[in-house]
Amino acid sequence: MFQTLIIRLSSMGDIIHNFPALSDLARHRPDIAIDWVVEESFAALPALHPAIRTVIPTALRRWRKAPLKSKAEFIHFRRKLRHHQYDLIIDSQGLIKSAFIAKQAIGPISGYDKASAREGLASLAYQHKHAVPRNQHAILRNRQLSAQVFNYKIDDTIDYGLNIPQLDLPWRPAQSYAVLLSATSRSDKEWAEDNWIELGTRLNAMGISSVLPWGNAQEQERSLRLAAAIPNAVCPPRISLAEAASLLASSRIVVGVDTGLAHLAAAVAVPVVAIFCASDPQLTGVLASSYAINLGHNGAPPSLESVWQATLDGMK
Question: How far apart are alpha carbons 133 and 113 in whole angstroms?
Answer without folding.
Answer: 10
